[in-house]
């Protein structure tokens, strides 16, 4: 018997050895036991073999575990860098979509506004064409090249031939519009400097048109396209002195033009309606008084031209009896506006849209890649069941406390679990109800305060009382899905993980406001927080569903120095060197505010609390953490984005085109991007049943706008140290 014991002891001690030395064994047995020893020997060999297999399996398990851990949580620096580069490329593409594709497409599909719609301009033209020195010229059709899209020329292009039918169509439409508005065609003035024989021959095919200019032909008109249109002569020799004057005329440019004018003594002067200023008129007057100038041509008179300017030139021409040709664009898109405004529009568009698109362009591919990695269900094959304490702070929650406790008790969790309900000085039956459960179930406890002390205090009490290695805290207006705890706890298998965020989903999806919030919850958690989790760097673990190592929570107590204690708490745990993940399958169903007043109160707390948190934890930004920098930037860029949203359409319209065109080109894009990102956010994690929420996208944009307005107000209140007042747990809190 003793030998057997010794043998077993020896096997126990030699777990690392694959075989037990036979020689050693033999010395242990006496000769009469030799027969039995042989049998034992076989058994020992068998055990050793199994031990060996076990060791190999254990090693394999370890390797798999390490691999899964990497696959589960990590995104390498190089991957993130590539994602950022991809984001920049995608953003650049998206930002240039309207000008590259939409603008040309829309201007091709939509009929441009024509003279028919601008009665003021038409009646003015009808009036001035009666003057004997004023002539009207058709200036192309819409002054936009059908080949290259440029607004500098139309019927002849250096980049390719305009089809002959297109030229025909444009010339005839231009003439048609003039006729329909009772305007005489005195001439045809090609837009831009390029024209070719084909365009000229098409023009002549339209036959004679009555023309005042033909009658006045003796006055040096051979440099115009002959207005009879039967025998067109190319105009040339017009000199342009004011081309760059449309934004601002500087003294130097005026002096330079004057010098040139004195030197050239041009008989023909060309200028554009956009360039007419007092200086321009002065220059013209100077040229006329100089005695050389006989004809002035004023181009690009269009739909939205400054009539006052046209009047001033006409008056000047009449005063000195100089011929004036008004070249009118019949179907104008624009009278090629200010260069500065154009540049401002482009810069503002690129910045605001770029800032809006870039984070989405980085995070969506990021989330999708991480999602595909995450498919390995780490939790399933690697069970880990420490004792868990579920902490439920409650204030006046008589309606929900019972349900919350029950949901805690019904968790599908293999380890042991206790529920600690903390009644934070409720004035209703919260304590009574919780007490009933505590009396009935051994693993339910209730702690009661006589007065309301705030959530942080309640949580800290919970952490101090918790028997579990892991503490899970949740609100009493939230209920945990049956798998939530086991899902979250599985992450603590990694000794570096200190805290795990769950996924909060809205339960009361009853009205528009709660649906919009649902959209927001799903998107922000499945995209941004999910990406943060790939670096195990979640910034905010929600108070509605979070698991934390109890000893960590005890060493870093939750405080009420901010009004968003969950954010502050998460940052503190992170500061202590812990990794923080998110478990998107650990769902907590929560009640969202159903009216605007409550929503604003809630968001005031969240936003303002986040501002306080990032201000307290400045170290995080100094560390160069991208997520924190993003949070800082968002606070201060949101007013800019908002301003852009308002001023972009105004800028665009001031450049010429109208609002419907803006909405179809530039205006549509942000909605499309919001829609796509929202769709992806909703579809991730098999929550496809919420897909119809994507239909709310246009309203979602308005909702975001409203939240941004609130954020601006809060940033102002924060920076000015005015602080805010919010209602919480039956108390009014003034936060600074
Ligand atoms: Zn062109
Ligand atoms: Zn022109």
Give a description of the structure.
The protein is of the alpha/beta class. The protein has 3 domains: 2-67; 114-332, Alpha-Beta Barrel (TIM Barrel), CATH 3.20.20; 355-735, Spore Coat Polysaccharide Biosynthesis Protein SpsA, Chain A. The chain is built from 25 helices and 16 strands. The strands form 3 sheets. The protein has an 8-stranded mixed β-sheet with strand order 9-8-7-10-13-12-14-11, sandwiched between helices. Strands 2-1-6-5-4-3 form a 6-stranded parallel β-sheet, covered by helices on one side. Strands 15-16 form a two-stranded antiparallel ribbon. Helix 12 packs antiparallel against helix 23 (626-654) and helix 21 packs across helix 25. It is elongated and about 135 Å long. Residues 1-27, 213-235 and 377-381 have low confidence and may be disordered.
Observed structural traits:
single chain, 736 residues, alpha/beta, TIM Barrel, Spore Coat Polysaccharide Biosynthesis Protein SpsA, Chain A, eight-stranded mixed sheet, six-stranded parallel sheet, 25 helices, 16 strands, 12% strand, elongated, binds zinc ion
Describe what is shown at a glance.
By secondary structure, this protein is an alpha/beta fold. It contains 25 helices and 16 strands. Helix 10 runs parallel beside helix 11.
């Amino acid at each position: 018997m003793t030998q057997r014991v010794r043998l077993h002891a020896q096997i126990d001690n030699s777990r690392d050895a694959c075989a037990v030395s036979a020689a050693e064994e033999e010395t242990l047995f006496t000769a009469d036991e030799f027969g039995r020893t042989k049998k034992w020997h076989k058994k020992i060999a068998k055990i050793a073999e199994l031990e060996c297999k076990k060791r190999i399996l254990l090693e394999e398990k370890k390797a798999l575990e390490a691999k899964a851990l990497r696959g589960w949580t990590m995104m390498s620096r190089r991957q993130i860098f590539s994602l950022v580069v991809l984001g920049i490329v995608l953003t650049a593409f998206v930002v240039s979509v309207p000008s590259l594709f939409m603008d040309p497409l829309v201007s091709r599909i939509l009929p441009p506004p024509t003279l028919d719609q601008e009665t003021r301009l038409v009646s003015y033209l009808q009036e001035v064409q009666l003057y004997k020195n004023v002539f009207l010229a058709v200036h192309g059709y819409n002054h936009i090249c059908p080949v290259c899209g440029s607004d500098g020329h139309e019927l002849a292009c250096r980049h390719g031939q305009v089809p002959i039918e297109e030229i025909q169509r444009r010339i005839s439409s231009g003439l048609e519009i003039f006729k329909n508005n009772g305007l005489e065609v005195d001439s045809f003035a090609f837009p831009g400097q390029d024209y070719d024989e084909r365009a000229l021959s098409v023009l002549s095919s339209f036959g004679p048109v009555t023309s005042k200019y033909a009658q006045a032909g003796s006055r040096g008109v051979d440099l115009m396209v002959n207005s009879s249109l039967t025998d067109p002569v190319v105009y040339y020799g017009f000199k342009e002195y004011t081309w760059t004057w449309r934004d601002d005329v500087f003294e130097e440019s005026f002096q330079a033009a004057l010098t040139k004018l004195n030197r050239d003594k041009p008989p023909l002067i060309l200028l554009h309606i956009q360039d007419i200023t007092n200086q321009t008129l002065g220059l013209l007057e100077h040229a006329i008084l100089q005695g050389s100038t006989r004809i002035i041509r004023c181009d690009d008179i269009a739909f939205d031209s400054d009539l006052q300017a046209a009047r001033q030139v006409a008056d000047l021409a009449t005063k000195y009896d100089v011929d004036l040709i008004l070249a009118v664009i019949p179907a104008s898109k624009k009278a090629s506006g200010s260069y500065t405004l154009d540049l401002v529009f482009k810069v503002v568009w690129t910045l605001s849209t770029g800032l809006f698109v870039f984070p989405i362009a980085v995070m969506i591919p990021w989330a999708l890649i991480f999602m595909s990695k995450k498919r390995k269900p780490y939790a399933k094959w690697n069970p880990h069941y420490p004792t868990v304490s579920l902490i439920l702070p409650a204030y006046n929650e008589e309606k929900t406390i019972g349900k919350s406790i029950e949901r805690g008790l019904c968790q599908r969790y293999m380890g042991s679990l206790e529920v600690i309900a903390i009644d934070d000085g409720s004035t209703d039956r919260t304590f009574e109800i919780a007490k009933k459960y505590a009396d009935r179930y051994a693993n339910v406890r209730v702690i009661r305060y006589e007065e309301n002390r705030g959530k942080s205090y309640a949580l800290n009490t919970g952490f101090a009382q918790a028997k579990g290695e892991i503490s899970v805290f949740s609100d009493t207006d939230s209920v945990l899905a049956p798998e939530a705890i086991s899902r979250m706890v599985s992450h603590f298998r990694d000794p570096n993980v200190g805290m795990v965020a769950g996924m909060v989903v809205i339960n009361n999806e009853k009205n528009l406001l709660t649906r919009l919030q649902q959209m927001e919850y799903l998107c922000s958690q499945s995209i941004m927080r999910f990406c943060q989790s790939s670096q195990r760097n979640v910034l905010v673990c929600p108070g509605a569903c979070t698991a934390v190592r109890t000893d960590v929570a005890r060493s870093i107590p939750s405080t009420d120095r901010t009004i968003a204690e969950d954010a502050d708490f998460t940052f503190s745990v992170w500061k202590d060197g812990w990794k923080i993940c998110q478990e998107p399958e650990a769902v907590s169903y929560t009640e969202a505010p159903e009216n605007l007043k409550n929503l604003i109160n809630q968001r005031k707390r969240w936003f303002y609390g986040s501002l306080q948190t990032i201000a307290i934890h400045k170290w995080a930004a100094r560390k160069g953490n991208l997520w924190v920098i993003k949070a800082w930037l968002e606070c201060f860029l949101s007013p800019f984005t908002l301003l852009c949203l308002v001023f972009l359409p105004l800028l665009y319209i001031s450049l010429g085109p109208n609002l419907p065109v803006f909405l179809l080109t530039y205006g549509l894009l942000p909605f499309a991007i919001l829609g796509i990102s929202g769709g992806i956010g909703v579809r991730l994690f098999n929550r496809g049943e919420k897909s119809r929420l994507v239909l709310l996208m246009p309203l979602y944009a308005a909702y975001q706008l409203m939240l941004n307005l609130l954020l601006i107000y809060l940033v102002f209140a924060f920076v000015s140290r005015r602080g805010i007042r919010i209602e919480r747990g039956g108390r009014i809190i003034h936060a600074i």
